[in-house]
Amino acid sequence: MPTIRLEDVSKIYKGQKGGGGLRPGRRGFETLSRVNLEIAQGEFVFFVGSRGAGSSTLLNLISGLLQPDEGAVYLDQVNLSKLKRRQEKKLPYIFGRVPQEPSLVRSATVFENLCPPGRFGRVGGTLTDGPLIAKALALVGLPDSEEKYPGEFSASERRRIELAKAILYSPPILILDRITDDMDDDSIWDMMHLLDEMNHRGTTVLMATGARQFVNLMRRRVITLVDGRIVGDVQKGRFGDIV
Questions:
Q1: Would you say 110 and 162 are in contact if contact means Cβ atoms under 8 Å apart?
Q2: Which of 28, 95, 126, 162 pairs as cysteine with 14 (C-beta 3.0–4.6 A)?
Q3: Angle (nearest 5°) at CA 41 between 6 and 171
Q4: Which DSSP letter does residue 241 get?
Q5: Per-residue confidence at 243, pLDDT binned at 50, 70, 90?
Q6: Chain segment 51-83, per-residue pLDDT in tens
Q7: Are 71 and 6 in contact, with CB atoms under 8 Å apart?
Q8: Does residue 133 belong to any structural domain of this protein?
Q9: pTM recorded for the entire structure
Q10: 160 in a structural domain
Q11: Where in the numbering of this chain does the ABC transporter domain appear (predicted)?
């Protein structure tokens, strides 16, 4: 199980105006500024802060979707910026992700959405993935929905389908970017129970969220960001704790 480490990480966007969490830097506008952070295997971490505070950028850097402009992100002792192509191909099996913006293809069935790219339509892939997809959908409370289309579900249910996709291959690290924004309270609570069970089995869970009451109930590690900087990092914390 991997350990995540960020050393003096900054992300700078050039030619953008300030506001919305962006702040002037030496060469542009920074969404993250000199972040140092270590996350041990098996931790459950909430990232909280206003929109634009930098949590989405931070999660994308951790998962290798973005590269830092300064500093380095390590998975164990491996610098993610220096991965070889064959190593990069392994990242989707290390990180299960639910992005901030909904990602389901409306014209495809739930099965097609969850089946890995390039494998749908291949007999081997279908036989291999079918039971895993059925299991993942059952875990998120949507059994027997493989042949339905995303439009047949509520926004909350669609986010649960995306969670099923993220946990499909039991990745060691789950990254959930504001998944709770489109979910009702009952769905959030059910999801928290599932994530808690997975975490107790060793899965690292990293979640950016604005769901204050659930963060306070879970009492896990809470990291608070303001304008691209970590201003709070509290074990068994509450929403907005600053220490």
A1: no
A2: 28
A3: 100
A4: -
A5: low
A6: 889 999 999 999 999 999 999 999 988 899 888
A7: yes
A8: no
A9: 0.89
A10: no
A11: 4-243
Residue 157 CA to residue 66 CA, distance in Å, equals 28
Query: With 90 as the cut, is the pLDDT of residue 138 above it?
Result: yes
Separation between Cα atoms, residue 27 and residue 15, nearest integer Å = 9
The domain tally of the chain equals 1
CA separation (Å) from 19 to 15, 22, 30, 144?
Answer: 13, 5, 11, 45
Query: Residue 53 has which token pair?
Result: 């505070």
Q: Which residue has the tokens 């992700």?
A: 97
| Residue 107: inside a domain | no
Specify the amino acid at residue 4: I
| Average pLDDT taken over every residue of the chain | 88
Q: What does the alpha-carbon distance between residue 212 and residue 186 come to, in Å, rounded to a whole number? A: 15
**Burial (0-12, 13-18, 19+ Cβ within 10 Å), 211:** buried
Signed CA dihedral, 3, 179, 96, 131: sign only? positive
DSSP letters, 91-138, are HHHHEEEE-SS----TTS-HHHHHSPTTTTT-HHHHHHHHHHHHHHHH
Q: How far is CA 35 from CA 15, 41, 89, 166, 235, in A?
A: 22, 19, 26, 26, 18
Name the residue range of residue 48's domain: 4-101+172-234
Task: Report the distance separating Cα 204 and Cα 200, nearest Å.
Answer: 9
- Cβ–Cβ under 8 Å, residues 97 and 169: no
Residue 89 confidence (pLDDT):
78
Distance from C-alpha of 154 to C-alpha of 34, rounded to nearest angstrom: 39
